[in-house]
Amino acid sequence: MLKLKNILFAFAILVSLFVSAQEQKEGEKEKGYQFTPIKEIPVTSVKDQYRSGTCWSFSGVGLLEAELLRLGKPEVDLSEMFIVYHAYSDKAVKYVRLHGNLSFSAGGAFHDVTNVIRKYGIVPEEVYTGLNYGEEKHVHGELDRVLLENVKAVVENPNKKISTVWQESLNNTLDNYFGELPEKFNYKGKEYTPHSYASEFIGLNMDDYVEISSYTHHPFYSKFIIEVPDNWSWDEVYNVPVNELEEIIDNAINTGFTVAWAADVSEKGFSTSQKGVAVVPVIDKANMTDAEISKWEKQKEKEKNEELYRLSKPGMEKVITQEIRQIDFDNHQTTDDHGMLIVGTAKDQVGNLYYKVKNSWGDYNDFGGYFYASKPYVKYKTMSVMLHKDAIPKNIRKKLNL
After folding, report:
1. CB hemisphere CA count around 197 (13 angstroms)
2. Which residue stretches of 207-353 are H helix?
3. Half-sphere exposure of residue 233, counting CA atoms within 13 Å on the CB side?
């Protein structure tokens, strides 16, 4: 009888351990962010800008590649470095004309992509990789510095007169690093120039792509030159209230259009490498006093919700207003850091909505190079977006005279 009791006792312990392990597994499932797709738009593969400041080219090109898929055309891989070469060359001309009073760096904007294609055409990636300097991936630190010193020397030269060959010298540097630009090439059995490839094979009208922003220091439903250093070409964006900016993005995704997204990614809630999310937590512990932290910690324990304000699982986020956006833009808390591509929507395990974002950092996280930005984050930290004008709701297009 005693042996039977021991056996039953041991069995009870085993059952208890099994149940505990199952509960632990279930608890682990509840942790972290779990996303369920709502809308996913076909796009080309994730690319890797690696150690270069050319996100604007990768995301702008990614937008156009997705547009070709939307229109039922063959998938293509377009050359980002063809765009970068021409943008750098044109930027140098403007820098010299302005006596050096212009930002001259690797940074750029989505309109640099459409401007280059409109002016110079485009080529496939296989025709022009831009890797002519002994690297397998894009490493531009040396190139960026060499080009900057080149244009600075032209502006500061002691001759008091600009030579007639300085731009040829700069373009020779670009040739050495990226490779000489192709005048003609064969693609899928046909000969093209960059212009004919853009018009005949790609066939997109660059004038169909517009940029939208939302700030109160300019009138709504007008165009203005967005005041960020990377807007070296001084192109204009359309200005709308932030609720309409959100409406534009949502309408685009819901109707099958991707959205090139320029945003601030220096926030504490931007944790795409670890968690694959970008959020705006409702409480920023770093800005609280010791007394507030103590009170907050007690409240957390009382509510048994320790994870609420951390990135370990979904929690409350700030309510974003037009005023908050403007304050952070004006005080340089929102800066033009990174260009990406919004390609869909999803929800987390508690029903919060997110945008699915294609990045250009290769396959660097658990989501294969994609991440999820909450609606508050996008509403808060969007500098501007680029999209096809047909993706804008008709009532807003009318206000913008599009």
Report:
1. 25
2. 242-254, 290-303, 322-330
3. 19
Burial 314-328 (b: 16+ CB within 10 A, else e): bbebbebebebbbeb
35-280+317-399, which class in CATH?
alpha beta
Query: What is residue 15's predicted lDDT score, i.e. its pLDDT?
Result: 47
Contact yes or no for 309/281 (Cβ under 8 A): yes
Pairing mode, strands 370-374 and 190-192 = unpaired
Pick from 205, 204, 210: nearest CA to 396: 210
| Count of other CB atoms within 10 angstroms of residue 282 | 13
Query: Are the CB atoms for 193 and 184 separated by under 8 Å?
Result: yes
Residue 121: the pLDDT is 98
Tokens 């048994």 sit at which residue? 304
Q: What are the mean pLDDT values of the chain's consecutive 10-residue runs (402 residues total)?
A: 50 50 46 91 98 98 98 97 98 97 97 98 98 97 98 93 95 98 97 98 98 98 97 98 98 98 88 79 59 49 42 84 97 94 97 97 93 96 98 98 96
- What is the torsion angle, in degrees rounded to the nearest 10, for the CA atoms of residue 200, residue 206, residue 209 and residue 210? 180
Token readout for 79 is 């050359």
- In the DSSP assignment, the letter for residue 217 is T
Domain boundary assignment for the chain = 35-280+317-399
The whole-number pLDDT of residue 385 equals 98
- Read off the amino acid at residue 361: W
Question: b/e for 194-218, b at 16 or more Cβ within 10 A?
Answer: beebbbebbebebeebbbbbbbeeb
Place of tokens 């967005």: 226
pLDDT value for 160: 84
pTM of this structure: 0.87
C-alpha 271/C-alpha 84 separation (Å) is 28
82: closest CA among 183, 211, 208, 207? 183
